[in-house]
Amino acid sequence: MIEKQSDSAIWSERWPAVAKLNLMLRIVGRRSDGYHLLQTVFQFVDICDWITFHPVDDGKVSLLHIMPGVPEADDLTIRAANSLKLETGCSFGVCIEVEKNLPMGGGLGGGSSDAATTLVVLNKLWNLHLPLERLMELGLALGADVPVFVNGYSAWAEGVGEVLKKITPAEQWCVVIKPGCHVNTKEIFSAKNLTRNSKSIKIADFIAGQHQNDCVEVVSEQYAQVKEALLALSDFTEARLTGTGACVFGQFESKELAEVAYDTLKNNKWQMYLAKGLNESPLVTKLKDWNYIS
């Protein structure tokens, strides 16, 4: 039984829930349960939601501000906190405050990242001492992208996205565009014309320039705004889709080149971000600053 929470100083902190990009995405098969088998590369970019955890005395888990259209019980941060309580028998409660900066339905992993930050930080705040591997397993039950955020490092991923190998792609500057639409991931993965038999490749093939995303064709057919953003960004660099979108992105060798594209393309139709690629999550960096991990 857990008897003591961490001290008040760490409870007052704001914790980052970072965005991710899929630098490539290949669908190489399908399991008997319908889940798709993938090869993908995850890298973080320095755009974040921010989460503050407030201790409460009643043992309940709640949100300070409920997201419109999302029942509180279905919110991934609530589910993550409750999964820790169920796993450990912890009797503590928490009120979770989320500053939402990452767009929903954008393929940047905002909900998954929020869940991962909740798992990792409450594990510290509640002195639960669950190992990283178990936190990743709990995360996988919440969503296929959660483990990479829990792990906190850029990764080559296989399986449904949970088999991770740390890699260090170049930390380039990026322009990220969020068109004015939300892509339904389930519909994309259910599309009849989705490629599901791509040949598996090796990390060296990715490094050599194999960056395809097998969802691009289907998403572009169904979402004209995504296709428009890809075409616009392709005037400046290789334009790619992250996950199933809706966000598209391009990488640049310098901040100056990225700024040219950003300044030229910015308009009232899109949310746009000028961001830096990161191989270490800001959450990991902050935990190191607090001497919680080495």
Poorly predicted regions: none
**Strand count:** 10
H and E string: HEEEHEHHHEEEHHHHEEHEH
Shape category: globular
What is the alpha-carbon Rg in Å?
A: 19 Å
The helix count comes to 11
What does this 3D model show about the protein?
The chain has helices at 8-11, 76-88, 110-125, 132-142, 146-151, 185-190, 203-207, 216-222, 224-233, 255-265, 282-289, and strands at residues 14-30, 36-56, 61-63, 93-99, 155-159, 163-166, 173-178, 240-241, 248-252, 271-278. The protein is globular and about 55 Å long. It has 2 domains: 8-167, Ribosomal Protein S5, domain 2, CATH 3.30.230; 173-278, GHMP kinase, C-terminal domain (Alpha-Beta Plaits), CATH 3.30.70. Strands 1, 2, 3, 4, 5, 6, 7, 8, 9 and 10 form a 10-stranded mixed sheet that branches. The model has no long low-confidence stretch (mean pLDDT 94). The chain has 11 helices and 10 strands. With 294 residues, it is an alpha+beta fold. Helix 8 packs across helix 9 (224-233).
Keywords:
2 domains, globular, 10 strands, alpha+beta, 294 residues, Alpha-Beta Plaits, Ribosomal Protein S5, domain 2, 10-stranded mixed β-sheet
